[in-house]
Amino acid sequence: MPPKRRSAEKKVPVYRRVLLKLSGEALMGRRASGIDPDIVAGISAEIADVVKLGVQLGVVVGGGNIFRGGEAGPQGIDRTVADHMGMLATVINSLALQSALERARVETRVMTAIEMREVAEPYIHRRAIRHLEKGRVVIFAGGTGNPYFTTDTAATLRAAEIKADVLLKATKVDGVYDRDPVRNPRAVQFRRIAYTDVLTRNLKVMDATAISLCRDNAIPIVVFNLQVPGNIRRVICGESVGTRVGGAT
Prior knowledge:
Elements: E1 17-22, H1 37-51, E2 56-61, H2 79-103, E3 108-112, E4 121-122, H3 125-133, E5 137-141, H4 151-161, E6 166-171, E7 176-177, E8 189-190, E9 192-193, H5 195-200, H6 208-216, E10 221-225, H7 231-236, E11 243-245
Parallel strand pairs: 1-2, 1-6, 2-5, 3-4, 3-5, 6-10, 9-11
Antiparallel strand pairs: 7-8, 10-11
């Protein structure tokens, strides 16, 4: 008998509006730092694929591939100054992603929490909603505009503001584990886990402020492996991929 074919992937999105959180490191590829154009092009192609389904998509990109504000203390840089430098790094990544998306024929807007009108629009809530309703991808850059807040918290804040149905946390692993799967081969993956369990177990999904904000606003989080082609679409179309934090069980 011929081998059974894998069932066709679901093609109908189960979410109308989505916030996708990308780490800055996701843009590096195999480089030690900076931006790999091929990686950015690949991510853009996947985003373009889900936009064609009619999904309204917001994106937050970290800046760790260029500069990490929280790690600048040993370099003698004041924490507030360093965090502002990190926010500028997220703008660089956002502009790179915008350029790649526009090459993929996806209309895109970058909105920044810190005004820099020559390169991007200032973040205005109602304008962001209007862009999404018109089918444009909106990249939210510059974090929250305040030091001492991570881009995970910025992603959660924007997800709450735009009333996203879900926050997608793209990572380099398959989901949330009870311990570091890179260091411990016996690590066990969770398929579903509550917000409170993430906090009490101190699992490194997102920082505590981000998790609490998602819990308080009932925003489910799906943590999944970005390095598997097609995973963004699979998650948005309701396939069981990665780990779901909070939401209905």
